[in-house]
Write a structure and sequence with these properties.
Layout (H helix, E strand, L loop, with lengths): L2 H8 L6 E7 L6 H14 L2 E7 L1 H15 L6 H14 L5 E2 L4 H4 L13 H9 L3 H4 L7 H5 L2 E2 L3 E2 L1 H23 L4 E2 L13 H5 L5 H10 L14 H4 L22 H16 L3
Parallel strand pairs: 1-2, 3-6
Antiparallel strand pairs: 4-5
Helix pairs in contact: 1-11, 3-4, 3-9, 3-13, 4-9
Length: 275
Amino acid sequence: GGMDSAILASYMPEGSDAYTFRFMNGAYQSDELERAEYFARFNKLKLHYIDIDWSVVESSVDIVMKQKGAPVHSIEPQVYHAAVNAKADGITMMVIGDGADYVFGGMDGLLSKDWGFDEFYKRAIYLEPSEILKKNVDIRNVFERYRIGESYIDFVRFYNEIITDESYSSYKNAFEAAQMPYIDPYERLVLSSPLDLLRIRSGESKYLIRELFGIKYPIPVPQKLPMPRPVDAYFANWKGPVRAEFRKKLDMSRYSGNQKWLMYSLERFLNLFNI
């Protein structure tokens, strides 16, 4: 339903199978589902919906954790489930578009300005370990490798190395758990010149992708949205972790769905491996 996948769809042979996630009976990000249907019709593809709810996530999360040997990103259970369903349909290779954000400057929030070290750390960390865990390890050393002078950080290098590695490995893990071969064409591309940060900061994230979309389709470029995953709804009534490693009486109303996923994923991982 997004412009990255729409562009990949435009290069696929007619009659190819296309898969898109559908949450909450289609109520979540319904506009993206409508675009997915349009792109499938425009390119003469066979569209399949992969319905995702919490039961699907919960039944898949242990599998991808065992494959990774670590807590997982919230995208991994649903990617695994999609790959398993495609495999059951007879699909032997999947094409995905995760890498476009990283190669073409789609992470516009992270690229929005020259960051001070401390403020970038707070933005990128999502959840400070010391806030939720009784015993914890300070991971600022990961960021220190990218420090510039006293107060700044090489956020572009951090973006190109740490953030891309995290995202690419999440998809790789999910597909490997499903034993499904896949390719991300964007991941294989390298820009011949540095990203134009001024254009990105002026509101043109992924400006090259936008230009290509305009060539491929006679409709406005859709708003850039992350891969859908309704973690806020999943954890709306979650009481929080109960293991002894976590601090007691955490006020869960203070945390976003993505932050709650980090806590849930860590606790599930510890339970899974009897740690």
